[in-house]
Amino acid sequence: MVSVHVITQRAEFATACASLAAGQGPLAIDAERASGFTYSQRAYLIQIHRRDAGTFLFDPPAIGDMSDLSMLGEGTEWVLHAASQDLACLREVGIFPQRIFDTELSARLLGLARVGLGPVMAEILDVHLAKEHSAVDWSTRPLPEPWLTYAVGDVERLVDLRDALAALLVENDKMDFALEEFEAVRLRPEKTPSEEPWRRLSGMHVLRHAQQLAVARSLWLSRDELARERDVSPGRLIPDASIVAAAAAKLGSQSDLARLKTFTGRASRPEIGRWWGAVERGQASVDLPALRVPSDTIPHQRSWADKNPLAALRLVAARERVTELAESMNMPVENVISPGPLREVCWAPPQDQTSENLRVALASEGAREWQATRVAPLLEEAFVLASAQHADAQLAEVAVAEPGATASATDEKIDPPTT
């Protein structure tokens, strides 16, 4: 019988682990975070279901280390919906699945129009989930019973969904693709933290001077410190727009900042002294940030036509062929090949643009083997076409610049016919 009781004690956790170990088949797991409410991205509730064991709800902050769950069998499959969203917070409490099945990725590979858990459950199992509590503050204690009932619903039919999707993947000859995708998600490394995360402030483009950037940086760091202390989402203290507005304004005193109508947020006035101190430090800073940060990444594709016309032609031709392949396979283009690897290889392909070399280049940029194998021959065709188009365009430019310059050299050597 499903219970909405939340496990908070170590002894009860150990009992639950024993029950799950005695269950059968895959384990369905889901985690609830408090994104937009708290600073951390930790799990505040973890739900697990297994056949012949039942459904269990765990309170990770109260329990602490949950690594015993990783010992339920080395070959045990863990079923998640959109695994990339939950794996980090599961690892944080010691849960390291060795094998996963991602129902959201499966839905994408099968070409379903909507891939959220609710729509997929409805389409595949005719089960309709209530999703009204999906964006609540899961750090709330105690958790309301309706929220817990909702959380149970997210996992109690997840293994049934997994079985139905697996059958469809086999039927459509896509199971091999899916297994590669699941493993790539499981092994994907965590993103490297940015050296200057304050540069991600939205609206930064309006700041034109280095001193303004220094003020924005100082305010961002002060906000981040307070948010970390209180475990509150930074934007709930003062939004990005307030930081940018204060950095752009000509402020001479704390009163000026307090009167700035665009400086808002629930902590904007209660913490006005903190914010003014940050503004003063930014205004006095001599360690000014660069207005533009050098980058070794390829430019945005909007500028390719000017910076690398041949690469622009390669990308257009490649996308046409990949789109056709995606349609024939009934899946989104981005699941046939991610935009990143495609752009990288179109911008700087191997010197010898054979199908095999292009396959290796795609794989080196993160494409899965099944993707690289199918897309590489299409790129070879696309690149040949793009090279011809580029050569034609260059000849046309010469013809416009120097009329008659492209006339065939043989024209001058043909003798007039004799009579």
Furnish the topology, listing elements before pairings.
Layout: E1 6-7, H1 10-21, E2 24-32, E3 45-51, E4 54-58, H2 60-63, E5 78-80, H3 83-92, E6 100-102, H4 103-109, H5 117-125, H6 145-153, H7 158-171, H8 175-187, H9 210-230, H10 240-248, H11 254-259, H12 272-284, H13 304-307, H14 309-329, H15 333-336, H16 339-347, H17 355-364, H18 369-401
Parallel strand pairs: 1-4, 2-5, 5-6
Antiparallel strand pairs: 2-3, 3-4
Summarize the structure.
This protein has 419 residues and is α/β, with parallel strands linked by helices. It is built from 18 helices and 6 strands.
Stated plainly, the CATH topology of the largest domain is called Nucleotidyltransferase, domain 5
Report the oligomer: single chain
Major sheet: order of its strands? 1-4-3-2-5-6
CATH structural class of the largest domain:
Alpha Beta
Proportion of β residues? 5-15%
The main sheet comes to: 6 strands, mixed
CA gyration radius, whole angstroms: 29 Å
The run of helices and strands is: EHEEEHEHEHHHHHHHHHHHHHHH
Straight-line distance between termini: 108 Å
For the record, the count of structural domains works out to 3
Structural class: alpha/beta
